[in-house]
Design goal:
heterodimer, A: alpha/beta, Rossmann fold, two-stranded antiparallel sheet, 9 strands, B: about 150 residues, 4-stranded parallel β-sheet, 4 strands
């Protein structure tokens, strides 16, 4: 707890903001290596596993935590407050996992805004029973005083959009061997320049994928549930939209190994700013159409282009979100 | 000049061999056209990465034009414009989901001999975007959360 003994061990903090908890599971997935982690580091703050309060973190001296692995996107004012607090208390702040790195699945809510999300979740969903139409209020008066809850933002942001981040570890979630490689790099002090993506490769997922590419042209795109693909051939060649060509490698092509097209969770490869634009180009390049009408028909069948091309990176993309209502 | 004084900023990505030549001809022939289009010359419309278009909007463009050589046969590189017409319908679909009005994005073909068509496109598209008003994507991102 609040690791005061100065035993020379690495002081580690872990936090989750707007996330699903999968990144925490990924750390537990270190399995027996978690004992090595415990031997090398004192965990000062980890809400999912330790009973440490925010006030304990506030009481720490600045830069007290050596490394903070921060997972989750910035969805609420609480998330942002913790991002600022943990930046202040940590020497090294790591955006850990796809949400902190580029917004991930919670970031798809950037196609909507606070009001439409509230209306959907608290009023329209068939399983909701809310006859009075009550929506969350940031503050509410009760006899005992004023109750406050965090503000829900219109826009999901990445950690890097609200705070200064030292390193990015991609993945939904980051793969345990990659996490361990990052921990080892931290322990050895052998760290790359600030702002680097660590725990991943410099090439695309295609580079790690075993399926054979024949560069076929496509007359019709399929969604994963519509066909059973040949497990030896490139999934793209078979008409599945696979994010492999537009995604940084490092996961070991886990999804394509089981014939699921890559969904893009490791983010854009080096040199690409907008992952969705890169994937869009890759998709368009395989379309087998010699007339404008045919091309428009084939690509017109793709359901939800933003959700497909930006599944993990909408907040980090060039446009960040859909247009807000005036 | 419109009533409210708004003048749109439009980015035009034009292929070197056809539409740029048309724009050049329109200019030297002194055809009347508003000065709102900032032209970026690329070697081929097939070179236009969707990232260019998104970046133009993200950095403040109110409208974007993509124009190259007529398919099938006009392309200087045989099939660069095929890449364009396979890509642009997806860009349109993307922009629609982002809530960017269809009237802010135009893609098509203008040959080197069609300077009149270019000048007309510039006049009509500028009017259209002016009527839609400013897009101002940067301001939207900078807006403070309450």
């Amino acid at each position: 707890m609040a690791g005061e003994p100065n035993n020379g061990k690495l002081k580690l903090g872990l936090y989750w903001a707007a996330s699903c908890g999968g990144c925490e599971i990924a750390i537990v997935e270190l399995r027996e290596k978690i004992l090595d982690l415990d031997a090398a580091a004192d965990i000062l703050f980890w809400p999912v596993a330790l009973d440490v309060k925010y006030k304990d973190v506030e009481a720490m001296p600045d830069r007290h935590i050596d490394v903070c692995l921060f997972n989750g996107a910035i969805r609420t004012s609480e998330n942002e407050h913790m991002a600022h607090l943990l930046r202040q208390k940590s020497k090294v702040l790591v955006a850990f996992g796809s949400c902190a790195h580029e917004g991930c699945i919670p970031g798809l809510a950037n196609l909507f805004d606070r009001q439409s999300i509230f209306e959907r979740v608290y009023l329209e969903v068939p399983s909701v029973d809310n006859p009075q139409g009550i929506l969350p209020q940031p503050s509410y008066r009760v006899p005992e005083g004023e109750v406050e809850i965090p503000h829900f933002y219109n826009t999901v942001k990445t950690l890097g959009q609200v705070e200064d981040v030292d390193y990015y570890v991609p993945g939904c979630p980051p793969q345990p061997p990659q996490i361990w490689a990052v921990v080892e790099a931290i322990l050895s002090g052998n760290l790359p320049p600030k702002g680097s993506v660590v725990g991943a490769n410099e090439k695309t997922v295609c580079d790690e994928c075993k399926h054979v590419r024949e560069e076929r042209r496509i007359k019709k795109f399929y969604r994963p549930h519509e066909i059973i693909p040949d497990s030896t051939k490139c999934l793209f060649d078979q008409g599945l939209i696979c994010a492999g060509p537009a995604t940084r490698g490092g996961c070991g092509a886990l999804c394509t190994k089981v014939d699921m097209p890559c969904r893009g969770c490791y983010g854009p490869p080096p040199g690409v700013i907008d992952q969705g634009a890169a994937l869009l180009s890759a998709v368009a390049s395989v379309v087998d159409a010699d007339t404008e009408e045919e091309a428009a028909r084939i690509v017109g069948e793709i359901v939800d282009p933003v959700g497909t091309f930006y599944r993990f990176g909408l907040p980090a993309s060039l446009l960040h979100r859909a247009k807000l209502r005036e | 000049m419109s009533d409210n004084g708004f003048e749109p900023r439009i980015v035009g990505f034009l292929c070197n061999w056809c539409t740029y030549t048309a724009a050049d001809t329109a200019g030297v022939s002194r055809m009347e056209q508003p000065p709102n289009v900032d032209i970026i010359r690329v070697m081929c419309s097939g070179r236009i990465d969707p990232e260019f278009i998104l970046k133009a909007f993200a950095e403040g463009a109110d409208g974007v034009i993509v124009s190259g050589c007529h398919p099938p046969g006009d392309c200087h590189y045989f099939n660069g414009n095929f890449k364009t017409f396979r890509r642009m319908p997806l860009v349109e679909a993307l922009l629609a989901q982002y809530g960017i009005e269809p009237g802010r994005f135009h893609w098509g073909w203008i040959s080197g001999a069609e300077a009149i068509k270019w000048a007309q496109l510039v006049r009509e598209f500028t009017d259209q975007v002016r009527n839609l008003g400013p897009l101002n994507w940067k301001r939207q991102l900078a807006s403070k959360e309450d």
